[in-house]
Amino acid sequence: MTTDPADPASDLGPSFGFQTLLGYRKIVQQADYTRLELEMRAELTNLIGLPHGGVHATLLDAALGGSGCYNGPGKDIRKAVTLNLNVSYLAQPRGTRLIAEGRRIGGGRKIYFAEGSVHDETGLELARATGTFRFVD
Fold first, then answer.
1. 8-136 belongs to which homologous superfamily?
2. Is the CB of residue 89 less than 8 Å from the CB of residue 109?
3. Is the dihedral of CA 65, 112, 3, 35 positive or negative?
């Protein structure tokens, strides 16, 4: 991610190795919500030319996990690990951009729960997930 203060995405934290490799971008991160986007490329498809299921799972893991990690403007993002992620695949995309949204739905001081989905730019829901996450120091 950028660190330019004039860029609205600059407060969303730096990207990391796997994020850079896949090429997804954090678009929104706020209290209890994260949105990510990924432009599909041929190298992210499976043998039949569809986005590999692992791409959907990665986007969901990052969006759901991120939904519990926002600390407020100018503060460092909290870190968390995934304890459980359950993904259901629903449809094949019609578009070329995958959009993942995660929402924190409960939890406490150390563990939280989230749910979310991946859809394409046409609005078609492609996958849905629930997850359990633990904050780490």
1. Hotdog Thioesterase (3.10.129.10)
2. no
3. positive
pTM for the structure as a whole: 0.88
- Give me the DSSP letters along 39-66: E--GGGB-TTSSBPHHHHHHHHHHHHHH
Report the pLDDT value the prediction gives residue 74, as an integer from 0 to 100.
86
CA dist 37 and 24 (Å) reads 5
Reference 101, options 41, 30, 43, 42; nearest CA is 30
Q: How many CB atoms lie within 10 A of CB 65?
A: 23
Spatial distance between the Cα atoms of 99 and 120, rounded to a whole number of angstroms = 6
44-58 per-position pLDDT tens digit: 999 999 999 999 999
In the structure encoding, which two tokens stand for residue 25, read together?
């971008």
Q: How many CA atoms lie within 13 A of 112 on its CB side?
A: 25
**Which residue from 121, 118, 3, 108 is spatially nearest to 56, judged by alpha carbons?**
118
